[in-house]
Each structure stands twice: as structure tokens, then as C-alpha cells.
Amino acid sequence: MTAEELYEFLRKTQEPKGYYFNRDREFVFQLLDSLLVNKDRYGYMCCPCRLAANDREWDRDINCPCVYRVPDVADYGSCYCGLYVSREWNEGKVPHLYVPERRPAEKAFGPAS
Question: Taking a C-beta distance cutoff of 8 angstroms, is the pair 63, 46 a contact?
Fold first, then answer.
């Protein structure tokens, strides 16, 4: 799959849910390319903005779109990475604020061995 194919697939499935790609197309394609790299690397498209543990179950919360996207977009108009945004965010109707990390710190370093 190419980044363009991924873009079209995700756009068609996510826009009806109220999630839009960031209007910065170059930025979006950098993230989509990174998602595809992670898919090749780990076998799943985990968030390129977070450290993955190479453990599908452990990383379930950061499989894109991550579980944090809903509250991030609701509270800030953008997800942590800035890939998904609200229509209002893209239109400049809400401030573009820093989105804090919601993933628990203990998840950041992978499962204990």
C-alpha cells in the first residue's frame, strides 16, 4: 500500500466520523509514510509519534487511530500527532494548542520482561 492509497482509504473511513486530516498535506504524508514503515517493522500501524514495544497487545492503545484520538480531538481539536483534526481546527476556528500526552508513562517503555 502506498501513502496515497492509505490517505484515500483513511479519509473515506474517518471523515464520516468527524475526523479530518491536518490541512498541511506534506506533514500528513510524512506521518502516513511513517505509519507504513511501522506496519512493515511491527506488522501493525502504530503511532509514529510514540515508542512502540513491538508487542501488538501492549501497543493496542497506540494503533492508529489511537484510543487517545477521540478525547484529544474533543479537547484540543487535534490528536497528539496532529494527523487527525476537527473541521474547526482546519478552518482556524479553534486555537492550535499543544496536545499533552495521554498515554500512561508505564506504557512508554514497553512491557516488563
Answer: yes
CA angle 68-110-39, nearest 5°? 65
Extract the C-alpha cell encoding 30.
510524512
Q: 94-100, long-range: CB within 8 Å, 24+ apart, which pairs?
A: 99/72
Whole-angstrom distance, CA of residue 71 vs CA of residue 10: 19
Q: What is the DSSP string of 35-85?
A: HHHHHHHHSS-B-TTS---S-TTGGGGGBSSPTTHHHHHHHHSB-SSSSEE
Q: Could you list the pLDDT tens digit for every one of the 113 residues in the chain? A: 899 999 999 999 999 999 999 999 999 999 999 999 999 999 999 999 999 999 999 999 999 999 999 999 999 999 999 999 999 999 999 999 999 999 998 887 778 75
Q: What is the DSSP letter of 100?
A: -
**Locus of grid cell 514495544:** 53
Is 0.90 topped by the overall pTM? yes
